[in-house]
Design goal:
Chain lengths: 298, 120
């Protein structure tokens, strides 16, 4: 997978807090890059609540079922030895009352139990966890995943969305919010991460967590301050103190909120935002491409 | 006959732990001889998921035929059923009081989980 991504410069848009403007930034950047003549791929990896398609459209998208492997026990061969349960870290299979019992919703599809079973009583079946969609909108090659309602296992679906083959020069990954497995799965393999934050105490608190996570993964990153109020230094000061580049700021503007609420990309609704994203995108792409060439290593 | 009662402490005077999967521990009691032993469940108390399943495995390994607890979720229920263990819920008060209630037949057996799982 790494090799496939290497040919494309990949920028992940992430945040600690939800609702900071990841999708707004990701969609507007993708459209800006595409209009500047770059072959652009947008991957909405927020599979629990995908919404980039609201701005881009869904018409004519190709869909595919996404499944994960789950253990299927042949009870005639199972002697209840418990080797499967010992191999499973997630309690997805356990030997009780003389036979193996499976809990598919807990299974991480590692296949360990199949190998561990001395009686070859376990084979692998499929469990549907969601669907992936792919289409072309306004010159942007666009894909997103949609997790089945009630499903907790999002990383395998995110992996499918990220594996869509493309000849794009540039890929934008719209990550889910937070710092847990789905986020790690989304940003991993990117050349650069743009952390979108807002200058509020909540925003700052969750930004700190996101920074810790990205540093742990070891990807170069910078911040975009959204809904920035003139004079509100909360996010800027934190970045300054912690040696984090601020890639840009997006002003708090009622017109932006109105365009967003109607599902219109900011760059189409507001000429000043078009300029803003061209500048932001220019800076971002320069930094990300430099990182992709490994000129910058943090 | 041995039963397990979810317990917040390691004596029969300890209060019952209302949770099964994430119970602090179990008092495993032989109701014929009156002998009781404490079985720790700390590992499952802090598990990120599958606590009910592992707790069921934990009590099944002690050879009990019934459990008495406050509530039981769906995965713990399936696991206990598969192990052939009867499930009694609604327990309150101390472990000792519930041993007496069990002997008197005044605890409620359930044939379905009585609470939702915490995880899908």
């Amino acid at each position: 997978m790494k090799e496939e991504i290497r040919q494309t410069t990949t920028i992940a848009v992430a945040s600690g807090k939800g609702g900071t403007g990841k999708t707004t930034v990701a969609v507007n950047l993708a459209l800006t890059f595409s209009r500047a003549g770059k072959k652009t791929l947008l991957l909405d990896c927020d599979v629990e609540a995908p919404n980039a398609h609201i701005f881009l459209g869904t018409e004519g998208m190709e869909s595919s079922r996404v499944t994960v492997r789950v253990p299927v026990v042949d009870e005639s061969k199972c002697d209840g030895c418990g080797a499967c349960g010992k191999a499973c870290r997630f309690s997805a299979i356990v030997s009780l009352g003389g036979k193996a019992l499976t809990f598919p919703s807990l299974c991480h599809a590692c296949g360990g139990c199949v190998i561990a079973c001395p009686n070859k009583a376990i084979s692998e079946g499929e469990r549907e966890i969601g669907a992936a969609f792919r289409g072309m909108f306004h010159g942007v090659d666009f894909a997103y995943g949609k997790l089945r309602i009630g499903e907790a296992m999002s990383p395998p679906l995110i992996r499918v969305v990220k594996k869509f083959k493309s000849d794009a020069e540039l890929a934008i990954v719209d990550s889910p919010p937070g710092t847990s497995c789905p986020v790690v799965q989304s940003v991993r393999g990117s050349d650069y991460v743009a952390l979108v934050t807002e200058p509020t105490p909540f925003g700052l608190h969750d930004l700190k967590l996101a920074v810790e996570m990205i540093r742990e993964i070891g990807i170069p990153f910078g911040c975009i301050v959204n809904r920035a109020e003139a004079g509100d230094r909360l996010a800027h000061d934190f970045c300054l103190e912690n040696d984090i580049p601020v890639i840009g700021a997006i002003p708090d503007d009622r017109r932006a909120a109105e365009a967003y609420s109607r599902g219109i990309p900011l760059i189409d609704a507001l000429p000043d935002f078009k300029l803003l994203f061209e500048e932001l995108g220019g800076k971002l792409i320069e930094t990300a491409e430099a990182c992709a060439r490994k000129e910058v290593r943090r | 006959m041995k039963i397990a009662i979810t317990s917040k402490g390691n004596t029969v005077d300890s209060p019952v732990d209302p949770r099964f999967g994430r119970a602090a521990g179990f008092m495993v009691c032989d109701i014929d001889t009156g002998e009781c032993a404490y079985k720790d469940n700390a590992q499952n108390l802090s598990a990120s998921q599958g606590a009910g399943i592992q707790s069921a495995k934990n009590v099944a390994d002690s050879g009990v035929s019934a459990i008495v607890t406050g509530h039981c979720g769906p995965k713990a229920f399936s696991a206990l059923k598969a192990a052939g263990i009867k499930i009694y819920t609604g327990a309150e008060g101390t472990v000792a009081e519930n041993i007496e209630k069990f002997k008197a037949g005044s605890v409620k057996e359930i044939d379905n989980a009585d609470v939702e799982g915490h995880w899908s």
